[in-house]
Amino acid sequence: MISISLALLLACGPKAPVSPAVVANPRATMPEPLAPRPFELPTPATATLKNGIPVVVVENHEVPLVYVNVVLRSGSWTDPVGKPGLAAATFDLMAEGAGGMDAAALSAAQRRIGASLSTGAGSDGSYISISCLSEKLPEALDLLATVLIRPDFPESEWELLRKKRLQDLASARNDPRSISARTWAVLSYGNTYLGHLSNEEAFKAMSTADLKAWHLANVAPRHALVTVGGATSLAEITPLLDEKLGGWIRAGDELPPLPSVESLPAPAQTRIFLVDKPGATQSNLRVGRFVGSRTDPDYWAFELANLAIGGMFTSRINMVLREEKGWTYGSRSGSDEGYLPGRWAVSASVVREATADSVAEIRKQLADSLGERPITQEELDYGRGYMLGTWPLRFENPGSLLGETTKIWRYGLAEDFLSSTPDKLRAVTLEQAQAAWSKHVDPGMMDILVVGDAAVIREPLQALGLPIVELLPDAKPLPETKPLPETKPKTR
Amino acid sequence: MIASLLLLLSGLALADEGPRTLEQPPARELSRPEVPELPFERYQLDNGLTVILSQDSSVPFVQVNLWYGVGSKDEVAGRTGFAHLFEHLMFQGSENMNADFFTPLQKIGAQVNGTTNFDRTNYFEGVPSEYLPLALWLEADRMGWLLPALTQEKLDNQKDVVRNERRQRYENTPYGEVWVWMMENVFPPDHPYHVPTIGRHEDIEAAAMEDVSAFFKTWYVPNNASLSIVGDFEASQARLLVQRYFGDIPRGPQPSPRSSATLPADWLSAEKVVEKTDDVPHARVWLAWISPASLQPGDAELDFLSDILSSGQDSRLYRALVKDKQIARSVSAYQASFLINSVFVIEATVADGHDTTELVAAIDEVLAEVRASGPTPEEVDVSRLNWKVNFYGGLQTIAAKADLLNLYQNRTGDPGYLGKDLQRYLDATPQSIHEATKQWLPEGRRVVLHVRPEGGAQ
Q1: Listing from the earlier edge strand, what are the strands of the sheet with B272-278?
Q2: DSSP A419-476
Q3: Which of A100, A190, A307, A486 is 20 to 30 A from A435 via CA?
Q4: Are B311 and A111 in contact (CB under 8 A)?
Q5: Buried b (16+ CB within 10 A) or exposed e, B191-216
Q6: pLDDT on residue A245
Q7: Residue B233: pLDDT above 90?
Q8: Cβ atoms B91, B242 nearer than 8 A
Q9: Position B178 in a domain
């Protein structure tokens, strides 16, 4: 399926053989590369189980471990309205009791065979995985299938888990990074499933009946893919998978239509959203807006433009904010496309005293990149070299290749997505990169989120001349300032 | 050497065979090769640089990994954080490549970084195989000729960057300063681990060019470094390249990194309770004991103990605190192994409505049981199996292998120490874990650090 010689990917520059000849000062000039080493990308083997579940296997016998993942289409995008967090709660609780075993018994059963099972649901999908010694594969698959198909959703474990999740939410409201991530999600995707964050009220109202119902409606073989990596083979594992999962049938397995929003609204003007974190010695910044989706024709052109301006260590913004100004430990930009168009952002944690200066500098860099300092051919080639050079690392271990395979399955990408990408990267011209950049990045229409010590940074931010909206975490509005209510003296 | 442990261990993980005695340890015969090998060849350049080569053609990449035998333990008074600050300066260019170290590397897709801890400093880059000459040239240039390219401006800039790293990772992260509080209480002021590697703001700020130059000349000499190269390459080519680029770096005076520290006889003779209030969401408590150094007797036993105490929902602490009493939301134990001394830590977060003092009492009940009767043979067998799976799981990248070879070289002088390392875990028994628990985790001799939210909530 995927078989490109790496030599093709990496062939560039002259090749100098290493010779024992004495060089006057070998240090004075940068050495030329050697001849590229031949490499065949591993080709996944595929099969289909009796009930139609596709199986993808990438063999690797370096260590006697096997990783088996059942990935499912359902995720928080199938959460019912008013019940954000239900998919995640369901997958969490599946691992806390199944087939008559309670959480401790399930945990002990894994440890007895050196296996490790995990479950989870994210926004666009969910998974259940197990890693184990190859010789324990039958026992491990038994556990996997039990948790996947026969979860018990025990009441006592739910009470415990719910309390944990409530405490996790309190932790998230305390941590500046989480505050920023959650608030940004609401600001960006407020009216879609990506902006519907798990919260206390929803957790308190959720019951095991909700979880059971969600499991029944959303976890079905029709929406599953099995990926396997490690010390096994298609011939060995397919009969085992058929035995454990092939008989799994579920009726009424229609999922809602996949989320799609043609485009999300761009902000009409650039505004600063400020969330107070009293005493914070740094401010957490995000500056961004919506960009496109993975299937856009200019996707790779935009990615390469992003690498020039903010996507890597050597990009303009990091070099200025960190290596020139010393305001931050690091800054990166990038976007994360799923079912919905991606939100691109520059992010950085900057020293409190340089908060406004950092915002101004990021905006200046963006404006320059669209005006007097467009992306150069050298910058474009630099980012391209990075992408082409790191490409083979996606195949270093089965896990990363299977992850790419899952992405193709989930988002319906072209079969040749992986094999064709290097050529697409090579084909991007400077004009295309600059055009994609100009199309998506408009410094006049950006959302800016600042989580930091408002008492110190408010005034300098005001001096930037942009509208400022102060918010509570999760983008909740500040309580309106009302006249103080009349207070009656307390009587005891 | 490490052959077939797997087979054996999975056998051991089966049913308990009843009590075993020290006189009759179970047979641990190594028969069939079943685990990955880490073959290597090692040699030394005339200038004392140790070179370790290990071929692995799983991907057309090569890892260049360089350890310097210097860490924050070797800093001088008033210069905490310096070893790490210096590591940053190593990325600011050298005589023949006076540009950011990332510049020539990122454009070929290299994965580049460096880290500093108490005991050592490492630098590594994973590059497509044909760029091995570039990676070696860059590493050699900064090992030999860093100073000509260094300026006051670069130093000042990196002080700011490092202070921002401290703010980001320690100050602006919930519980981020705990490691600082713990070390300053676990170790006396003159102990090399008293201040964590990140250092103090004022010391970082005070660093001067003379410090940089002296540190470089003292520690960054080829005879205090080991270079491991792992991945897809030709050994003969690599030897030539290493000689070409590193060969004329002069040997320096042999440095003596700190390898021991004396604790006062009455140090931690009684329990030391520290109470902190901070911007954290929940009260959390840490118990810390000084424990055997990395690879020393008792170190592996305490790894097993930590696993038995807190791995999985059937573990002793989890069961007692989270499941049965429901006074904690989470609990974990770990042996943090270092060169001079290690620290055994138990940390637990309260469940809403409870206080850390209850947690300490409940932890002590569990510890009292282990001190009284030790772990069961079944617990130890299960731990051994899971430890092994994790160990091999962590050996699946050439980056991890390159670092491990250097770790063994640095700690033991033998890059092939893997088999001996594993043997410690094979040899551990319920009895030896019981002994280690009694010896190293006695009642009293520990630090108890409570961290509670501001405002007294929870």
Answers
A1: B272-278, B447-453, B284-291, B342-350, B328-336
A2: HHHHHHHHH--HHHHHHHHHHH--TTS-EEEEEE-HHHHHHHHHTTT--EEEEEGGGE
A3: A190
A4: yes
A5: bbbbbbbbbbbebbeebeeebbeebb
A6: 97
A7: yes
A8: no
A9: yes
Element (H, E) at B384: helix B377-393
Q: Which two tokens stand for residue A165?
A: 């999740």
Residue B23 placed within a domain: no
Distance in angstroms (rounded) separating the CA atoms of residues A362 and A325: 12
Which one, of A381, A386, A395, A425, lies nearest residue B112 by Cα?
Answer: A386
pLDDT of res. A10: 32
pLDDT digits (tens, 9 = 90+) for A231-248: 999 999 999 999 999 999
A264, A341 Cβ separation under 8 angstroms = yes
Look-up: residue for tokens 């060969």? B247
Cβ(A441)–Cβ(A448) below 8 Å:
no
Q: Torsions phi, psi of A473, nearest 5? A: -50, 155
If asked whether residues B95 and B177 sit together in one domain, one would say yes
Q: Does B297 touch chain A (CB under 8 A)?
A: no
pLDDT at residue A419, as a whole number: 85
Q: What is the pLDDT of residue A442?
A: 86
For testing contact with chain A, the best of B12, B91, B129 (most A CBs within 10 A)? B129
Residue A12 has pLDDT above 80, yes or no: no
Per-residue pLDDT tens digits for B299-351 = 999 999 999 999 999 999 999 999 999 999 999 999 999 999 999 999 999 99
Q: Which of A293, A334, A317 is nearest to A379 (CA)?
A: A317
Phi-psi region of B326 (alpha: psi -120 to 50; beta: other; left: phi over 0): left
Q: What is the pLDDT of residue B392?
A: 85
What per-residue confidence (pLDDT) applies to A81? 86
State chain B's mean pLDDT as an integer.
Answer: 91
The Cα A461–Cα A466 span in angstroms is: 8
Give the residue from B246, B275, B298 where a domain finishes.
B246
Q: How many CB atoms lie within 10 A of CB B16?
A: 12
Interface-testing mutation among A40, A136, A178, A281, with chain B (most B C-beta atoms within 10 A): A281
Mark yes or no for CB contact A282/B168 under 8 Å.
Answer: yes
Q: Which residue range forms the structural domain that includes residue B399? A: 266-456
Rounded percentage of chain B residues whose pLDDT exceeds 70 = 91
Q: What is the ipTM of this complex?
A: 0.88
Under a CB-based contact definition with an 8 Å cutoff, are residues B376 and B16 in contact? yes
Paired with A68 in beta bridges are: A130, A228
pLDDT at B207 over 50: yes
User: Where residue B88 sits, what CATH number does that domain have?
Assistant: 3.30.830.10
Residues of chain B positioned with their CB less than 8 A from the CB of A15:
130
Tell how far CA A390 is from the center of its chain. Answer: 18
Per-residue model confidence as pLDDT tens digits over A414-441 = 888 888 899 999 999 999 999 999 999 9
B6 pLDDT exceeds 60? no
| Domains assigned to chain A | 45-245 (3.30.830.10), 271-475 (3.30.830.10)
Length of chain A: 492
Contact A350, A283 (CB under 8 A): yes
CB neighbour class for A54 (10 Å; exposed up to 12, middle 13-18, buried from 19): middle
- Among the partner-chain residues A104, A314, A388, the one whose CB lies closest to the CB of B314 is A104
Q: Which of A8, A25, A34, A315 to mutate to test the interface with B (most CBs of B within 10 A)?
A: A34
Specify the pLDDT at position A444: 82
**Residue A112 in contact with residue B13, Cβ under 8 Å?**
yes
In this prediction the pTM is 0.90
The answer, for B109 touching chain A at a CB cutoff of 8 Å, is yes
Widest distance between CA atoms in chain B: 68
Full 3-state SS string of A63-120? CCEEEEEEEECCCHHHCCCCCCCHHHHHHHHHCCEECCEEHHHHHHHHHHCCCEEEEE
Are B178 and B288 members of one domain? Answer: no
